[in-house]
Amino acid sequence: MVSSHKRELTLTAAGLSLIAVSYGLARYAYGLFAPTLRTEFDLDGGTLGAIAAGSYVAYCLAVIASTAVTTRWGARAGALAAGTSATAGTALIAASPNVAVLALGVVLAGASTGLASPSLADAVSRVVRVTRRDRAQSVVNAGTGLGVLVSGPVSLLAIGDWRLAWWAFAAASALVTLWIARVVPSVREKTKSGLPSPLFPPATGRLLPAAALLGAASAAIWTFGRDIAVTVGGIGETESTVVWIVLGVVGLAGAFTAELTSRAGLRRTWSAGMLLFAVATALFAVATRSLPALLVAAALFGAVYIGLTGVLILWGTRAYPASPAFGVGLAFLMLALGQAAGAPLIGLLGDLADLRLGFLAAAAMAVLGVLFAPREATTTYNFGARSLSRVSSVPPERESRGDCA
User: Which end of the chain is more exposed for a tag (fewer CB within 10 A), N or C?
Assistant: First the structure.
């Protein structure tokens, strides 16, 4: 029992670390360094957005690849591919002599996130017992906040030499990859074709558009959050980095998504989260020159975004209880497609009119996302001392043992 619990904790810690380096460093640190990269490579807003879109497209392809890899070779293969991609991508960014190499590095780094999420969701679903599974999924997902938190101080320490920061990110990614190789089990999907049946259960009618709208709305702050503070708001380099650090610190609150949804339910958590998400994004636009307002907006965005992606993970695993990697992969595929469409659109609005207009458009998308809130689940099981709603086609007697289909 103790050994099993220790194994669960170790897997959760390693998974959180992989999410931290892939999302927080390899992918979202691009937004942190956007003002520097704009100057270094003489980029306009449209080009910055296009490079970010390339990262999101790579993410989409990686989600598909990760689902297939996890099905055929197990979770460890997908997780190792994620760590390797993060390491190679951040190293390429650090060494980039021109825009083409920079874009290639950003694309490769962005692919790491698509490889990480489905494989880790699958590993957690198959290793962690059912009463602790949602909490473990939420903690792993909160690694994004940890990575964003780490990237801020590193960028401050590397002022004047942004490449040094990216070399540090590459080193961290390599170390986490070695850890992943030791602790993530090579468990496999127990399906004949690797595809669930039905392919699109009723829950996906809301899950897919909801994830896409969250992705499109989030592209504003992830890609241009620091850029708008510096170029439009006139906030200094150090102050704007502090805004980014606050985003990461409060983003760690996403680890409590499971507890929140066990009390409020997925539907209310999603609806309230998307409205708060819209407020945070709009605040970036209307109070751009106010550092206190930006700090509040960043804190709100960090907590809500990580929480909402945690809801997508729970939503996806419940829509596909027998194939969790596929469920999470599908949800995050739509999230990335939304980001791929949103980033260049917001950048284009910034070039044609004002970047603040792009942020307001993103806030409107978040409000629209409320319309696709999940329907409440129909069955429950105990989560700690509380009752947790769950949609599942797995028989209760198998759930109680923590078995998987």
Answer: N
Q: Which two tokens stand for residue 91?
A: 């190293």
Where helices occur in 142-256 by DSSP H, the ranges are: 143-157, 162-183, 204-231, 237-251
Q: Read off the pLDDT of residues 180-209 as tens digits, 9 standing for 90 and up.
A: 999 998 765 454 445 777 889 998 999 999
11-52 pLDDT, tens per residue?
A: 999 999 999 999 999 988 998 898 889 889 999 888 888 898
Amino acid at position 143, single letter: G
Residue with tokens 């680890």: 255
20 to each of 24, 376, 399, how far by Cα in Å?
A: 5, 30, 30
Separation between Cα atoms, residue 208 and residue 221, nearest integer Å: 21
CB atoms within 10 A of CB 4: 12
Q: Please tell me the pTM assigned to this model.
A: 0.78
CA distance 394 to 53: 37
C-alpha span between 41 and 17 (Å, rounded): 31
3 state DSSP class of 390: strand
Cα–Cα distance, 70 to 139 (Å, whole number): 21
Q: What CA–CA distance (Å, rounded) separates 300 from 124? A: 28
CA 64 to chain centre: 16
CA distance from start to end of the chain: 22
